[in-house]
């Protein structure tokens, strides 16, 4: 380590004092402010600065709204200014600042000159850190909620498929036996009607099971799940989906496959409900380190900036929210009369969590 002369060190300390983004105050043993840097001056209201300049030993109290100790979030009990012998090398304090209201700071209050009783009070704004932490917490909460939803969908789907559907199927088999017994024409007609009702119920249960969570998504992957879903869409709604997958049946993390499937499912249903078209194109591929999904229709399109767009708008929000969980993003390109393109891209990290 290169040694410094006293002059060089003093020069560096003065530069740090003058240019630091942290607010720095120097107090004497009575609590009066000796000096402060420009960052400190910027956060204090004029009346506080005037009171400090007048030598008021409690001027900082006009701005301070308490500090956090082991008992309370904001308290003035055993104040750091009045208890210099306690450890206040690192703590949290709240100050009422100029133009920004009450802001949390991480603080340090230490004696640097025992003989003369000089203490230094340093503050670092925690607002940005709090916002970052809040965003991270919100993302984790959303991620856990969506995971819980998918797990519950999977459980109910399996229960419907393996439990309820099998019971209905067993009832159908037993009912069909009656057709070969000596029953009159009226009873036989009723049996056939009941058989038809049970068949429709069985189809509904199977469809509901797939919509909740298609088993093929977990067992065989996105391509198989998409092809099954699109065949069902064509059979039941007449919507023709031209699907191409350029992945060679490659598998990804379960979370990624779920996001891609749900975003595509929402985009296709939106096209079915609002686009006014009978066919659309879905393309799934990798490009330049990203897994990409394009859902394109040649329908009526819409104005993204409309105050009251068709639908609730929650579908677009949900797609974006799901994509963000895997560091992806969605883009919607549309104009009235020019169709709609929904694009999803998710980064694929070589050797990382998604590769």
Summarize the structure.
It contains nine helices and eleven strands. It has helices at residues 6-19, 38-43, 46-53, 127-177, 185-212, 215-219, 222-237, 254-275, 314-325, and strands at 23-27, 33-36, 64-67, 91-97, 101-113, 118-125, 240-245, 279-287, 290-297, 329-334, 340-347. The strands form two sheets. The protein has a six-stranded antiparallel beta sheet with strand order 2-1-6-5-4-3. Strands 7-8-9-11-10 form a five-stranded mixed beta sheet.
Question: How are the secondary structure elements laid out?
Answer:
Blueprint: H1 6-19, E1 23-27, E2 33-36, H2 38-43, H3 46-53, E3 64-67, E4 91-97, E5 101-113, E6 118-125, H4 127-177, H5 185-212, H6 215-219, H7 222-237, E7 240-245, H8 254-275, E8 279-287, E9 290-297, H9 314-325, E10 329-334, E11 340-347
Parallel strand pairs: 7-8
Antiparallel strand pairs: 1-2, 1-6, 3-4, 4-5, 5-6, 8-9, 9-11, 10-11
Helix pairs in contact: 4-5, 4-9, 7-8, 8-9
How would you describe this structure to a colleague?
The chain has 355 residues and is of the alpha+beta class. The protein has 3 domains: 6-125, PAS domain (Beta-Lactamase); 126-213; 221-355, 2-Layer Sandwich (Heat Shock Protein 90). The chain has 9 helices and 11 strands. It has helices at residues 6-19, 38-43, 46-53, 127-177, 185-212, 215-219, 222-237, 254-275, 314-325; strands spanning 23-27, 33-36, 64-67, 91-97, 101-113, 118-125, 240-245, 279-287, 290-297, 329-334, 340-347. Strand 7, helix 8 (254-275) and strand 8 (279-287) form a beta-alpha-beta unit. Helix 4 (127-177) runs antiparallel to helix 5, helix 4 crosses helix 9 and helix 7 (222-237) runs parallel beside helix 8. The longest helix has 51 residues, at 127-177. It is elongated, with a radius of gyration of 33 Å. The two termini are 42 Å apart.
């Amino acid at each position: 380590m290169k040694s410094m002369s006293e002059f060089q060190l003093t020069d560096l300390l003065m530069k740090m004092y003058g240019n630091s983004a942290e607010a720095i105050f120097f107090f004497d043993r009575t609590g009066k402010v000796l000096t402060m840097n420009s960052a400190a001056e910027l956060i204090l209201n004029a009346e506080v600065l005037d009171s400090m300049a007048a030598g008021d030993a409690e001027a900082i109290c006009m701005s301070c709204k308490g500090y956090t100790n082991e008992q309370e979030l904001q308290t003035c009990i055993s104040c750091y200014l009045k208890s210099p012998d306690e450890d206040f090398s690192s703590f949290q304090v709240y100050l009422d600042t100029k133009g920004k209201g009450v802001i949390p700071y991480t603080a340090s209050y230490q004696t640097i000159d025992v003989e003369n009783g000089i203490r230094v009070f340093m503050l670092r704004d925690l607002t940005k850190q709090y916002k970052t932490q809040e965003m991270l917490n919100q993302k984790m909460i959303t991620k856990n909620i969506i995971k819980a939803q998918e797990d519950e969908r999977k459980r109910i789907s399996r229960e419907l498929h393996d439990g309820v559907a099998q019971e209905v199927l067993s009832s159908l088999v037993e009912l069909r036996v009656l057709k070969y017994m000596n029953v009159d024409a009226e009873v036989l007609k009723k049996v056939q009607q009941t058989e038809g009702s049970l068949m429709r119920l069985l189809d509904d249960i199977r469809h509901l099971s797939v919509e909740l969570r298609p088993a093929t998504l977990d067992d065989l992957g996105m391509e198989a799940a998409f092809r099954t879903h699109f065949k069902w869409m064509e059979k039941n709604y007449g919507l023709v989906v031209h699907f191409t997958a350029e992945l060679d049946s490659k598998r990804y993390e379960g979370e990624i496959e779920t996001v891609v499937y749900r975003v595509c499912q929402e985009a296709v249903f939106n096209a079915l409900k609002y686009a006014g078209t009978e066919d659309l194109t879905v393309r799934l591929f990798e490009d330049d380190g990203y897994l990409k999904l394009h859902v394109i229709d040649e329908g009526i399109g819409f104005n993204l900036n409309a105050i009251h767009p068709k639908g609730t708008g929650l579908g677009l929000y949900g797609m974006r929210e799901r994509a963000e969980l895997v560091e992806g993003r969605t883009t919607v390109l549309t104009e009235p009369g020019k169709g709609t393109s929904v694009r999803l891209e998710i980064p694929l990290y070589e050797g990382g969590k998604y590769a």
